[in-house]
Write a structure and sequence with these properties.
Helices cover about 35% and strands about 30% of the residues. It is built from six helices and eight strands.
Length: about 200
């Protein structure tokens, strides 16, 4: 397990991702070509890589101060298919430093995670996430805190899973992640779910 400390600067290879993986989660990325192969090789040597959020229009969150994710490479399948398959564990997040991209590497500063807190199992966000995963099973979600033996769930984990699932605009997602606490994210997510409930 790769361990970073808050405020540590890391210059690492990076991948742009339309799937916005969040901390305390896992992800799978496939790719081909020289640049992808080189990035994976560099990431293995460096102990991980940065994931940069990209939206469907091609816009990326790679400017100074934008939030990026640090991913440890848990496994690489080089040969079983036409694409290289990466299995990732998202350990931390960071923010892009002013120096930005240099020679296919990106410098980021490790950003403190939100302080841990818990939500009860009757919280709107917990209940809807449980309902969603029972209808649409998701390997990454099922392996996490939803199997909690208690009646409480990690607030951060719930927020981050919703941010992975919902088609929230990239700029909005970045603003929520830059907040020093999870409170703005909780308020925003509850508003979306309530509006969705009213439409049904």
């Amino acid at each position: 397990m790769v361990s970073l400390i808050s405020n540590e600067f890391k210059r690492l290879p990076y991948l742009k991702c339309r799937d916005h993986f969040m901390p305390m989660g896992n992800g799978n990325i496939n790719g081909t070509g020289y640049r992808f192969t080189h990035t994976v090789t560099d990431g293995l040597r460096a102990g991980g890589l940065w994931l940069v959020m990209q939206d469907d229009s091609g816009q990326i969150a790679g400017n100074s101060g934008d939030i990026i994710m640090f991913a440890a490479i848990e496994d690489v399948d080089w040969l079983s298919g036409s694409q290289i398959k990466l299995k990732l564990a998202i350990r931390h997040w960071g923010k892009v430093t002013a120096s930005g991209v240099q020679h296919q590497h990106l410098e980021g500063q490790v950003y403190p995670l939100w302080q841990d807190s818990v939500l009860p199992d009757d919280d709107l966000l917990v209940m809807r996430l449980l309902q969603l995963t029972s209808v649409y099973p998701n390997q990454q979600l099922d392996s996490g805190a939803l199997s909690s033996p208690t009646s409480q769930f990690n607030t951060n984990w719930i927020c981050w899973r919703w941010l992975e699932i919902l088609p929230i605009p990239l700029g909005t997602k970045q603003r929520l992640l830059k907040s020093p606490t999870s409170e703005p994210c909780l308020r925003y997510l509850r508003k979306i779910i309530r509006q969705s409930d009213r439409i049904k």
